[in-house]
Write a structure and sequence with these properties.
The complex is a heterodimer of chains A (140) and B (98). Chain A has 140 residues and is α+β, with helices and mostly antiparallel strands. Chain A is built from four helices and seven strands. Chain A has one domain. In chain A, 38% of the residues lie in helices and 44% in strands. Chain B is an alpha/beta fold and 98 residues long. Chain B is 23% helix and 26% strand. A four-stranded parallel sheet of chain B has the order 4-3-2-5, covered by helices on one side. In chain B, helix 3 links the parallel strand 3 and strand 4. Classes of the chains: A alpha+beta (140), B alpha/beta (98). At the A-B interface, helix 1, strand 1, helix 2, strand 5 and helix 3 of A face strand 1, helix 1 and strand 5 of B.
Amino acid sequence: MVHALEEIHRTLIPEGLLLDLRPLANRWPVEVVTGRKTHRLGRLTDLPKGLADDMAANTAIVESEQSGWFVKEMEDIFYIYLYWDTPEELLVQMTERWNDFVKLEDETFELIQAAWKNDSGRKRLRIKMKMLLTRLRKRE
Amino acid sequence: MPIQKDPEGIETLHLHKHADITSQRVLEVGCGDGRLTWRYAGIVARAIGIDPDMDALCNALRCCPSSLREIISFVRADSLHLPFSKESFDRTILAWSL
C-alpha cells in the first residue's frame, strides 16, 4: 500500500490532491425498504480480514505522511446505500464477493427472508455502508 | 439487477464537496467498471481509470457514455507500477482501492 502511495506521489503535480475514498468495516446494517418504510433486520459481521485491511490502509496513510509525501488536510465520514432486488442476490454478493470481509449470519438471512415474504409491493434490500474520504495534499 | 451502489450519488457529493476537480487531470485508481468515473468525468479535463481487472475494464469501455469517450481512458495497470510520467495528474482518486 505504501508503495502505491509513493507511485501516486510521483505522478501528482506539486500541491496535487490525493482523495482516498473507501468503505470502513462497521457492522453494516441490513434493511428492507418498502415504499417509504425501512425495516432494519440486523447487521453484517465484520471478519478479521476486513478489519485488518482497514488498519493497513490507515497505517499506509500515516506512513505516507511520515515519509513527507503528503499532508492530510481533512477526513469526512459519511454513509452510502447499496441495493439488491432479492435476498438471493444479496446472498450471492456475500458468498462470492465479500466472503473474506463480512458475513451475513444465518439468523439475519432468515429474518430477511421472512420480511421479504411478509411485505407486499415493491421492495428492495439495502446495506448502509460507512465511508471514509481523506484528502491529502502532495508535498514538494 | 445484481447490485446498485449508491444510486443517490452521496459519494460523489462528498467528493465534490472536498475537492475541486473541475477542469483537472484526474487519475482514478481502482476504477473497476467505471461506476464512479461516469459520475464525475463530465466536468474534468481528462480522466484515466486504471484497474488490474480486465473484465471490469471491458465493462467500463462498453458502458462508457459516448459523450465522455474523448475525456476518459481506461488502462490495465496496478497502483504499484503506474505507467505515467512524473507529475501527470492534478488529482488522484483511490476508489475503494487502498
